[in-house]
Amino acid sequence: MKKAVLGIIAIAAVIGTPALAADIALKAPPPPPPAASWTGFYIGIDGGSGFSDFTGDRTCVNPSGVSFGPGCTQNIVGAVVSPSGGLFGGTAGYNFQSGKVVYGIETDIQWSGIKASSTVSIGVPTPTGSYTATDNLNWFGTTRGRIGLLASPNLLLYGTGGVIYGQDSVTALTFFPSGNNYPAAASTTRAGGVVGAGFEYAFAGHLSVKLEGLYYDMGTLNSSFTCPVGAPLCTVGFTEGGTFKISGAIMRAGLNWHF
């Protein structure tokens, strides 16, 4: 009797083993986690550096209205100052994702240290004075559209373009050996265009890092001083000053938090 029972158990084990193995084999592996979505709001911080185009061209108009006409010192030609410096600010935006295409809008505001000052001598062969050009991009902001392609679920390559606005301050200062000086200062808040490109990489859940380069152009700013009656070493009717281009490029890195 004992032998019969043991035989039945052995037969059941042999029959059941393939079924159990088939059961184990049929269990599918767990599904992969869903791909990260780029759709939604984000905020962030960024920082980098930038430079303005070589600028600060001296201007001189004589009483007849002729640029660098008779009576103007001729030896300063072209730009004299090359502003550069750091920048830091905050960013906010919204993305839409459609397959591998990501598009949206982004805005930012930046503190800027893009500035410089340079002095050159006036008069040849013996200097009779000097000319100093100072240019300072105090702050700026941009509002841009962005559109790009996902090279991978977490890596976005994009182009961007839109509007830039900011405040620039300039000084075109003519000095004479006697200690007299004639300042031509100007400050403006204006808008222009900006274009660029970059990439953004999503990591650690809601975080992404980006690196982008932008070129901006907000036109030109003129500053001038017209010699009044009785001004020492300044011929009545002559206008001295400078022309400054508010254009250049920036490179910045950023860290974004996606909601």
Question: What can you see in these coordinates?
Answer:
The protein has one helix at 2-26; strands at residues 40-52, 57-61, 84-98, 101-122, 129-152, 155-175, 181-203, 207-226, 239-258. The chain has 259 residues and is mainly β. The chain has one domain: Beta Barrel (Porin), CATH 2.40.160.20. The protein has an 8-stranded antiparallel barrel. A hairpin with a 2-residue loop joins β5 and β6 (155-175). The longest helix has 25 residues, at 2-26.
Task: Please outline what is shown here.
The chain has 259 residues and is mainly beta.
Helix content: under 10%
Instruction: Count structural domains.
Output: 1
Provide the spatial order of strands within the biggest beta sheet.
1-3-4-5-6-7-8-9
Proportion of strand residues: over 45%
CATH topology: Porin
Number of strands: 9
Relevant terms:
259 residues, mainly beta, Porin, 8-stranded antiparallel beta barrel, 1 helix, 9 strands, disordered N terminus
Lay out the secondary structure:
Blueprint: H1 2-26, E1 40-52, E2 57-61, E3 84-98, E4 101-122, E5 129-152, E6 155-175, E7 181-203, E8 207-226, E9 239-258
Antiparallel strand pairs: 1-3, 1-9, 2-9, 3-4, 4-5, 5-6, 6-7, 7-8, 8-9
